[in-house]
């Protein structure tokens, strides 16, 4: 495992974990856009849980690479779905936000040992 992979993976995990925490505490700057995009409130805990699980999976993946790859792929699918949701809501100025989470996850996968 390279130092770059370790640093990028830990950064991605903390960053995605912060995103999950923001949903759990219902941070205004997170939940207001979710409402505007039409994401039902009943989904919010599940979305936060998916992000939290992905963040934990990235860290565990440092020791069990297959889990890290699975978590990374899951998070890429999650944030791709977020981009699509933002585009469907025609909130084009918000497209960079899910990309800011997707990019470090993709970088962690690219730097990883693979399977």
UniProtKB/TrEMBL annotation:
Q: What highest taxon heads this organism's lineage?
A: Bacteria
- Per the UniProt record, which residue ranges are transmembrane? 52-79, 91-112
Query: Topology with regard to the membrane?
Result: Multi-pass membrane protein
Provide the alphabetized UniProt keywords.
Answer: Membrane, Transmembrane, Transmembrane helix
- Signal sequence residues: none
Pfam families in UniProt: DoxX_2
Which cellular component, as a GO term, is one annotated location? membrane
| Compartments, as annotated in UniProt | Membrane
Q: What is this protein called?
A: DoxX-like family protein
């Amino acid at each position: 495992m390279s130092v770059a992979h370790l640093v990028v993976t830990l950064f991605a995990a903390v960053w995605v974990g912060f995103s999950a925490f923001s949903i759990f505490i219902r941070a205004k700057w997170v939940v207001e856009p979710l409402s505007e995009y039409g994401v039902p409130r009943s989904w919010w805990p599940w979305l936060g849980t998916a992000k939290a699980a992905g963040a934990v999976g990235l860290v565990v993946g440092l020791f069990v690479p297959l889990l890290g790859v699975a978590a990374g792929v899951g998070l890429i699918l999650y944030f791709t779905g977020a981009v699509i949701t933002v585009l469907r809501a025609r909130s084009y100025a918000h497209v960079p936000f899910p990309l800011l989470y997707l990019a470090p996850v993709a970088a962690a996968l690219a730097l990883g040992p693979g399977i």
